[in-house]
Amino acid sequence: MIRDVSLTYDKTAVIENLSMALKPQELGCILGPSGCGKSTLLRAIAGFQALNSGEIWLDNRLLASTSQAMPPETRGVGMVFQDIALFPHLTVAENIEFGLTDWTDVSRRERVAELLQLIGLPGLEARYPHELSGGQQQRVALARAMAPKPNLLLLDEPFSGLDTELRGRLASEIRTILKSDGICSLMVTHDQREAFDFADRIAVIHDGHICQFDTPYNLYHEPSSPFVAHFVGPGEMVDAVIAGPRSVDSPLGILTNDADLEFPTGTPVKLFLRPDDLIHDDASDYHATLVGKHFRGAHHLYEVRLDNGVVLGCFAPSHHNHSIGEAIGVTLDVEHLVVFPTH
Amino acid sequence: MAIITKPATESRLRLPQPNGFLISTVIAALCVALPICVVISFLFVGESDAWSHLADTLLARYAWNSLLLSALVALGVVAIGVPAAWMISFYRFPGRDVFSWLLLLPLAYPAYILAYTYTGVLDYAGPVLTWMRAVGSPQWLMEPILNLKSLPGAALMLSLVLYPYVYLMARAAFLDQSANLMEAGFTLGQSRWSVFRRVVIPMARPAIAAGTLLALMETLADFGTVQFFGVQTFTTGIVRTYYGFGDAVGAAQLSSVLLGFVIVLVVFERLSRHRVRYYSDRLRKLNQASIHLTGSRARLVQVLCILPVCFGFLIPTALLIYWTAFFAELQSLWVLTLNSFMLAGGSSIIIVLVALMVAYANRLYPSQWLTQLTILVGLGYALPGVVVAIGVLIPFSTVDHWISARLEPFGVPPSLYLSGTVFALVFAYLVRFLAVANGNIFSGLSRIRPSLDQSGRLLGLSQTGVLKSIHVPLMRGSVLTAILVCFVDILKELPATIMLRPFNFDTLAVKTYELAGEERLIDAAAPSLLIVLVGLLPVIWLNRSVSKE
């Protein structure tokens, strides 16, 4: 649990009065653009960074406050590093058992075997890190951090050194491993897809504050601010007016929400629309001009311009092949409306 | 127009056309190989009378002394170099940046000059012991000073000037380690001490070993210090066998034993370097993990850092300046300086030109056999000067005898045509120092993109034209550095110069050696000081290039 933590990096404040708490066995994620202070926060939890204010607690133990700080080695916090940081002079097995100094030989050997099984690399005990692929190295680094059974596992951009295809796969793989072990974890990343693949709940950080701490589904469908809306996936703002307790008058007709809206009728608002909200429908009354198209194989991502000049994304089935400049029918398919005040 | 490409197999089998660059590389390799082959070939000549005498009595002593000296120097350089590197890398304290380069300064000293200087100030009638007797110091305090001229004394002198090798390598290794590796150790529940012991030191071990092995190569090559201190090692033994007993075969056989020792060192050094490579190359460097020291602990670290600099540079330099300013006779100094500078300057330019050709040949025709030939050329640096000298003297004087015998019927008196000429000396320097120039030239050339060569050729330059108007201007820094480093090494080189110089041709190093031999240590100060001052130039350059990285 983090309470009112402020941090500075290179003399500039990067985190201000930030609070968040993870549940037992939860996989949390801190998502934010580069330089938002998320890595600094992780280093503060691990014990490599002093706090300017606030407190950090783990299982009712005070890890750090402004007046006192436990040294990193006694915190019971494990960490997987951005540059993997496997000890190059030790074998895979020696790396994994590095933190098991107090264990007996037998239990140490058992733990290494168990972890190698868990990360799907049995038989590689005697290899050296430079003999492994990037993905294998990252899994060994994970096993090494998990070996002493820490109470909290931190992952600092663990996939940033790997290629795109491997990233998504490894993120869900590691999620499975950590879930089966039941270890509470916190990952830091700037990649929204990695965060979605990995986390139970994601905290989006911007300008040193948490904008929203929620499940991936809610972040995507019910963003609490325009920043979160844009950061977790593509979409555009459209001018609209509140038409009733549950309805909005948009350029594409009156839309109805699944719950009451918190704006009085007649208020001008911004309506946030994602490409999957707008559907291509030849029978629709509303038409928009096709100004760009991206063939994605299974579907088209069209860019369409509405009469008021706003350009929106729109998914269309693969076989609906229109040409640029054509006016095509579009309709909105939204159950939950994302509405922000205009200013 | 049709573009015809030759089948790949054919071009792979075809050897490159003989050309100047290739031929000069082969010749350079043969030059370096000559003394090695000569020395080794004498192993199979059979035993001379002197050899059996040597083997019975002296060989064991030479080997034992050389080994003991090496062991002591290894201990010394590690004991000074590693803690120094440790303090500079892991602690932040006032003056740290200054200490980081001050610690390199002893590299400017050849060990023999340090030996002469300390002997001058510490001998029985010298100021230190005179003062100690005056204040009634106990005998046990004066005893070790009186016994400076001994094997441990020689080890101390060598350690004081050679520790910077270990310091440099260890510092680079410490700074190269990712901060994350240490932090990974902490998050795995390990204490600071445990992380140092299990991560930092093991990862720096290959670098420390490589630095120590370099220091040991210099130790085995040393002649001036051990000769002056009366320690009988291989180098003094070889010189004594050659001149004292007039036994070329015995000297060559001793040389080949010494060569065996050196080869072992070279092999280990290569292995260590290989391991250094995959231990480095990480993202976030250690710099920011430094521990701030203040107050008395900072003062302690400062004192520990300044100690080796004091004994390896500041004190001897102050003495040399003092002696030069008040006691030195400077008449002959100009001739000595001119001789030394012309010899060192001319030789280093020749060496760098050869290095350029070797490097360019490797670039033009990258191939297995050429690479191996270049590695052979690189071995020269490990060869002790004494071994090179013997390996050059024997074949050259054989040729001299042969020419003299042919000319005798015509009434020409026997003379030295090769040995005892400047040519022999330059040849020996080429053998010994080509590797030094090669290192600089190769790294300079590798930074120039091949596309520049290609555009040069497409714009009408010949191969030589590319070297002259593209490479040399672009790598001017590397070329000048190579010349400078060779120049200083030649200036310091003692045994090969003594053994190969023409009659009555004195250099600064030779004069220093002769004056010291006559116990005129104070008169030796002026040439010594010049050698040290010029020797500072590459140290300053080295520091700049290291700190740039």
- Provide the structure class of chain B: mainly alpha
Note the overall shape of chain B: globular
Which two protein chains have the largest interface (Cβ within 8 Å of the partner's Cβ), and how many residues from each?
Answer: A-B, 29 and 22 residues
> Under the CATH scheme, which class of the largest domain in chain B?
Mainly Alpha
Describe the structure.
The complex is a heterodimer of chains A (343) and B (549). Chain A contains eight helices and 20 strands. Chain A has 343 residues and is an alpha+beta fold. A six-stranded mixed sheet of chain A has the order 6-7-8-3-9-10, with helices on both faces. In chain A, a hairpin with a 2-residue loop joins β1 (2-9) and β2. In chain A, α5 packs parallel to α6 (192-198). The longest helix of chain A has 18 residues, at 164-181. Chain A starts with a strand and ends with a strand. In chain A, 40% of the residues are buried. The mean pLDDT of chain A is 85. Chain B contains 24 helices and two strands. Chain B has 549 residues and is mainly α. Residues 4-14 of chain B have low confidence and may be disordered. In chain B, 46% of the residues are buried. Chain B has two domains: 21-48 and 329-521, MetI-like fold (Orthogonal Bundle); 58-327, Orthogonal Bundle (MetI-like fold). Chain B has a two-stranded parallel sheet with strand order 1-2. Chain B has helices at residues 8-13, 20-41, 49-90, 96-102, 111-122, 127-134, 139-146, 151-176, 179-187, 192-221, 224-229, 234-244, 248-279, 295-327, 333-364, 368-378, 385-407, 422-446, 450-458, 463-474, 476-492, 495-500, 508-517, 525-548; strands spanning 91-92, 291-292. Chain B starts with 7 loop residues before the first helix and ends with a helix. Classes of the chains: A alpha+beta (343), B mainly alpha (549). The interface between A and B is medium-sized, with 29 and 22 residues.
Please supply descriptive tags for the structure shown above:
heterodimer, A: 343 residues, alpha+beta, six-stranded mixed sheet, five-stranded antiparallel sheet, 8 helices, 20 strands, 23% helix, globular, B: 549 residues, mainly alpha, MetI-like fold, 2 domains, two-stranded parallel sheet
